[in-house]
Amino acid sequence: MKELDLLKKDWQKNTDSFEQVSENEIYKMIHKKSSSIVKWILIISILEVLLWTALNVCFNNDAYFTKMNHDEIILYLNIFSYFSYGVMLVFIYFFYKNYVRISLTVSTKQLMKDILKTRKTVQYYVYFNLTMIVLSLIVAFIIAFAYDPDTIALTNKITTNGKALAITTVGILMTFIVIIGAFWLFYRVLYGILLRRLYANYKELKKIDL
């Protein structure tokens, strides 16, 4: 009996050891996956800034505003662009810090905190970008209808026809909604997949930490 009791105690010790090794392996795997996800968030955000920069260079409207004798609009749009890029670069810096922090984290609790912090940062980044897109569309419509001679002439004709005015208004609203919806879907798919995987890692870590 004594030998059996000793065997049971030894088996229990080995079982605890196996559980501990298993938890450590799970943590390492989740840690590696989380670090990889945050790295991809950083890479995608950098590529996004480069894409917007390329589009601004390719579709520069300075000559268009100069032709309309409204050079002041160029200044306002440049300030708007610099502000937008400045904030996006700040977010990229935060993404980089989150990546470094998660890569160096050795504590389960700290990794969980870093994951939640990263998710919030990405969510704020998406909200900011969508807000700037909405503001950009509003500004574009205002400039077109207030300063573009062709648009102004067309608007004057439309306003005399109630049906044409209604159709044009609905068309503009639908265009606005479609564009915003497309960008919202883009961000939801692109960053949403990464955030869902990151949160799945958080839930796995929570099981380990219990």
As for the number of domains, it is 1
Note poorly predicted spans.
1-8, 15-19
Q: What's the story with the biggest beta sheet?
A: none
- Estimate the helix proportion, in percent: over 70%
Q: How many β strands by DSSP? A: 0
H and E order: HHHHHH
Q: Work out the strand percent.
A: under 5%
Nearest-integer average pLDDT:
82
Shape: elongated
CA(first)-CA(last) distance: 35 Å
Radius of gyration: 27 Å
Structure class: mainly alpha
Number of helices: 6
Keywords: Membrane, Transmembrane, Transmembrane helix
Notes on the structure:
The protein has about 210 residues and is mainly α. It has one domain. The chain is built from six helices and no strands. It has helices spanning about 1-60, 60-65, 70-105, 110-145, 150-160, 160-210. Helix 1 packs antiparallel against helix 6 (about 160-210) and helix 3 (about 70-105) packs antiparallel against helix 4. The longest helix is centred in the N-terminal third of the chain and has 57 residues, at about 1-60. It is elongated. Residues about 1-10 and about 15-20 have low confidence and may be disordered. Keywords: Membrane, Transmembrane, Transmembrane helix.
Keywords:
mainly alpha, transmembrane helix, about 210 residues, transmembrane, 6 helices, membrane, disordered N terminus
Précis, in short:
By secondary structure, the chain is mostly helical. It has 6 helices and no strands. The protein has helices at residues 2-58, 62-67, 71-104, 108-147, 149-159, 162-209.
